[in-house]
Amino acid sequence: MSVQFPEGFLWGGAVAANQCEGAYNEDGKGWSTQDVAPQGIKGPITEVPTEDNMKLVGIDFYHRYKEDIKLFAEMGFKVFRTSIAWSRIFPNGDELEPNEKGLQFYDDLFDECHKYGIEPLVTISHYETPLHLSKHYNGWVNRELVGFYERYSRTLFTRYKGKVKYWLTFNEINSILHEPFMSGGIYTPKDKLSKQNLYQAIHHELVASALAVKIGHEIDPEAKIGCMILSMPTYPLTPNPDDVIAAMQTEHLNYFFGDVHARGIYPGYMKRYFREHGIEIHMEPGDAEILKHTVDFISFSYYVSICETGDDSRRNQTEGNLFSGAANPYLEASEWGWQIDPQGLRYVLNMFYDRYQKPLFIVENGLGAKDVLITGEDGVPTVNDDYRIKYLNDHLVQVGEAIEDGIEVMGYTSWGCIDLVSASTAELSKRYGFIYVDRHDDNTGTLERYRKKSFYWYKDVIATNGQSLQR
To answer: Which one of 21, 172, 308, 364 is the catalytic residue?
Structure first.
């Protein structure tokens, strides 16, 4: 029995501006938090950009996007997820007028997508708060960022009306819980950041996200605006009720973000959490009404699942994208220690749909691996990445199972459809793409693009609307 995907399913791939564009100081762009994080999400930050930061060049997508979009079209992409670099549009973040050269770049990029019949799926803020807003305002801890984001999002909705149908407000918004600088531009060191300030910053982001939904629908009633959550389904390590409750409480901290985006109110379990941790969220007049502007769909990333236990002595830690938990003894792991759980994707699709009854969009999923470039039979360099094909095949089969379960899935964009600089490690050797980019961690390479074996595999998957997948 073949896997059945609905007609019009949005197949494609995903990147982020800060991991692929490069051109960090061209055409009026300001510095972002990514420009001072040369070792990735968990590394130290610098005062100014330094030459060892791979993201300053990325894969030079800024100058090579036409070549890359053509390759995506060759694969048959229906949708291409990318982000807009906030500091290309407002270099410091608090200006009154946008940077025209930055706006024009994305006009040209979206035009190139439409030339091939590819719909852009655009993230408004993807881990790259303008550095000025981080250093001088302490990022989203400061209420003023709501106004700056409102001006920024209004500018985008107005400029790209008719060019961009699908929008996401914040990338992996719940990641602020673990990486407040990268996710929320919060300059206070993580170990000195109070829960009060952290959750106040989260409130500001949630208000800004709802404002963007309101503004986007007013400017372009045809636009579909979603939230984006880092999903990491959490299983109890054992049937012990203590483990079950521990898993539930971990899930609550992540569900909170989806609950507010989809339901427009703060859930009772978070009100209890605030009481027990001495947190008092300051709401401005009108915030509760703004939050009622809920999203059209829920999008999320999925890479791994984790286990939780109420017994710290049994916590054999495993690494995840940003979160980590107890290792699952039934799962294998990638080269970077991320446990591989295709069925977890079916599970999380069911959980989200049961909870929200809104369309779902898988906007990140993929395998980071150390690919080896070889010479193919036709004399052209390639990569025999059967491990990536297996990973993606197995996950997509589970998406098909979820669709059979009755889940409304809009589409799937594989993460890092072309090799890019890793967010978590700032390496290029951690490759995700269907397209190999000749650039290396020592900053050498030609930046030439080569089709991997998975390129042709994914092309076939799209052409057959999933019929070619192997159960």
So the answer is: 364
